[in-house]
Amino acid sequence: MTPASSSGLGSDQLAEQGGTDRSVAYIGLMKTSSLEILENAELPSAQAHAILKVMESEMASAHETLATKTDLLAVRADLNAGMANLREQILVLEVKMNGIEGRLTRWVFTCILGQTAVLVGFGYFMLGHAGK
To answer: How would DSSP label each residue in 42-105?
Structure first.
């Protein structure tokens, strides 16, 4: 299949449009209906071909950067695995915090008991020396 036949244009139509086989070679991947729409809008053939070539290259480059459903599913799986890992780490931290909370509570009660002993000793000292 030649480029002219793949684009749906015969050699006589190419001659009428001022095109050559070389200028139509890249149209093979494009739909001829798009070319016909542009030409029916009274665009010159060369300009219609240039517009379609730019559109094709932009769509090809966008295809490389767009995420597919498979890409999104892979990202979702990664996120789910990451979330599961975070949940495990949060549980570990909660256990550690509970241990620290117990030790902190004992330390606070020990400090309160020590402060009470100091105040009782100071009160006893003051009562013993105030009467003299």
So the answer is: T--HHHHHHHHHHHHHHHHHHHHHSPPHHHHHHHHHHHHHHHHHHHHHHHHHHHHHHHHHHHHH
Domain boundaries, the chain: 3-65, 68-132
* CA–CA distances in Å: residue 80 to residues 53, 77, 83: 41, 5, 5
- Interatomic CA distance for residues 46 and 24, integer angstroms: 10
Which pLDDT tens digit goes with each residue over 1-30? 334 444 444 434 444 444 444 434 444 445
Pair of tokens at residue 44: 């010159």
pTM listed for this prediction: 0.40
Find where tokens 């070679």 sit.
25
Each residue's pLDDT tens digit, 86-124: 999 999 999 999 989 989 999 999 999 999 999 999 999
Alpha-carbon span 111 to 87, nearest angstrom: 36
